[in-house]
Amino acid sequence: MEIREDGEDEHRAGFVSYLSRPDAVALAAVDGGAVVGFIDLEFRARLNFLTPQAWVPDLIVTSSARSRGAGRALLAAAEERARERGCFALSLESATWRDRAHAFYERERMTHTSASFAKLLGGMEGWPPQAREEG
Question: Distance between CA atoms of 37 and 54, rounded to whole angstroms?
């Protein structure tokens, strides 16, 4: 008998649906057969630009693989795909307390360009994520 966490089947179906979108790409970093990182990339039409914007909703690297090149490789692969699509920029958001992540993005020649604001509309306890010990 297989035991499922709450919502696991729904998340799997959502992920499979996401992978079929023509305006999205998902990539994984693998080390020794184990997935150690993940990035997804969406190509957004913007009314004030003639070419799309590449946006990274998620860039995740396991704590054991950080500072070993997985994030750099994933971000480079996303940038390559954005350039192939003729995007005017590659953008992402990062929580204000993610100091190590911010330093990484700056090392990768990304510029801190804006502040992000959000209003919770319901149904997502614990969002936005708050500062926690990064390990």
Answer: 19
CB 54 within 8 A of CB 82: yes
Q: Are 44 and 55 in contact (CB under 8 A)?
A: yes
Domain that holds residue 43: 21-98
Question: With contact defined as beta carbons under 8 Å apart, do 47 and 53 qualify?
Answer: no
* Residue 50, CA atoms < 13 Å, CB-side half-sphere: 0
Task: Confirm whether 122 is domain-assigned.
Answer: no
DSSP H stretches of helix in 20-135: 70-84, 99-107
Task: Specify the CATH number for the domain of residue 35.
Answer: 3.40.630.30
- What is the residue-level pLDDT of the chain in tens, covering all 135 positions? 455 567 888 989 998 999 999 999 999 999 999 999 999 999 999 999 999 999 999 999 999 999 899 999 999 999 999 999 999 999 999 888 888 998 999 999 999 998 888 878 887 777 777 776 554
* CA distance readout (Å), 133 to 62, 70, 129: 14, 21, 12
Using the Cα atoms of residue 92, residue 129, residue 34 and residue 32 in order, give the sign of their dihedral.
positive
Number of domains composing the chain: 1
